[in-house]
Here is the input.
Amino acid sequence: MTLPIVFGACQRIPDPPAKSGELIILTRTSASTYYLNADKQPVGFEYDLVSRFAGQHGWRLRVERAETVGDLVDRLKGGEAHLAAAGLAITPARRNRMRFGPVYAHERELVICAEGGRKLTSAADLIGIGLEVVAGSSHLERLAELQRSHVELTWKSVPAASEEALLERVASGLADCAVADALSYEVARNFLPNLTVALDLGKREIAWVLPEWADEGLRQDVDKFFAEAERSGALKQLRERYFGHVSRLDQADVMGVLQRRGQLLPPLKKHFFQAQLETDIDWRLLAALAYQESQWDKWAVSPTGVRGIMMLTGDTADRMGVADRLDPRASILGGARYLVMLKNELPERIAEPDRTWMALAAYNQGMGHLEDARRLAQRLGKNPDRWSELKEVLPLIARSQYLPYLRHGFARGGEATLLAENVRIYYDILSRYEPAYVGGFDDS
Here is the structure.
């Protein structure tokens, strides 16, 4: 009879998921891995990825959260989970203690400081500044490497759950600089626009982590999963869903929406709430679209004749029953109805959130030009039902060599892509600072 391996007094290795029907994973809370959305539902790149893995095998998924990276590694080694899915970098020291799955991403390690701070040109410039790093993170190994040639280099290890917490400290002046990966910085800069990249320390590979005692069958399943996800484009699509838009805005754009949120948004909220009740579109997405179109200026008018908060054309306003485009309530309701109409015109097979991003592009260019781009995408061997591929094709409908394939003529497809991507970021910002609307509407 074979007895289970025991760790300490009571910890034991869990049965393989193929036997128990349950996959247990360890992760950490951050914008790039796992978090709860406005509806208190778990989301995030790592969560969605591991959910697909479990779903393919018919396993239940159990998520355990660790407070720090060090805690996560210790708990994995102690037998609390089958694997860790937390955006962990592969380092020499970690290779000696655990086994990594296939590499699915590469991230650069950056020193992030506040705008206007000390200029850094080399590792030597890090000496003497208040540098912080997440305790237990891979960045500690990078700093230790640098310390061999810069013995006076020092830093503070902070037991934080994610790099976002350190970047908030830098933005608020509690620390001079912090070490973070590029993805964490790109996400954070849309909420903390006074951050800047001061120094690039190099690149690391990212992978899931399995303990040494992991079942060989599970290891093989992980290898096959990533091979298929890479081949099918599912991995690229998922990265696009969460991170394909994060680096679009500059500092002025982010500061603008944050400032106007307190000044111009409050009196408009009741209209966005009503539009959500009528169309079932999150009011914050509608507000993000309105900001992209007019910066919430009810008097906005363009040289081409579109006007109002939602910048409706005369024809669109007539179709949506909007008598006065400069009336904020009418404009918001008309824009929301138009967006729903565009979503409904798309083929049913197009899933969310791609469906919404395509409808936003059509809001800018019209459904005819969007369909031209979708047909061109198919001709070019791309998937017309995936936003990650369609947004690469949209700018091409402005080029003369593709005119023979366009039923509706030239269009500035790049502008449609830009609108959709910017709205995605503004929606992220508003979702962070504004609560979801779940109550009834009071028009008093």
Observations:
- The longest strand covers residues 195-210.
- The CA atoms of residues 13 and 79 lie 5 Å apart.
- The chain has three domains: 6-103+207-243, 106-205, 251-433.
